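Q: I'm writing up a methods section and want to include an example of the input and output format. Could you take the sequence below and give the corresponding predicted structure tokens, formatted cleanly so I can copy it straight into the document?
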Amino acid sequence: MYFFILYLILNTQYLILKYMIIITNKRAYFDYQILETFEAGIELFGFEVKAIKNGRINIAGSYVVIRDNEAYLLNADIPAYQPKNAPENYDSKRTRRLLLKKSEIKTLIGRTQEKGLTLLPLKVYTKGRKNLIKIEIGLGKSRKKADKREVLKKREVGREIRREIRRSAE
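A: Here is the clean output for your methods example:
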């Protein structure tokens, strides 16, 4: 019995260390209702990998497009790790190819042709022992202004409830 509990504790600690979220696109979660998520690899240069692991990436305002049965990340800003050592013609907002399975790309093609659905990057994180950089893309539907207000009201009510619980505990 004790061995099993110890095994679970060690296993959960391993799972916690397995993923390290580098950045989250909070604006995408606010502006869009996320219907489905996909995990994709991303094609990068070596110095871009180092920059991302240091947290130097901006995915706010970026989006995913599918062209010629391949997915591409557009408008994501990854500045060079060491600007003086980067190639002279390096563009930090260049288009980067996403690595997805063919079946996932086919489903994304079908889903993005529906009215009002967009592909957005949600999170960038490292995964596994080799610390591979992965990006979570989401299929989102744009929220109306009233829906955004509703989300803000729910957040505010949640904050007030937490405050009252803290006050009553003291």
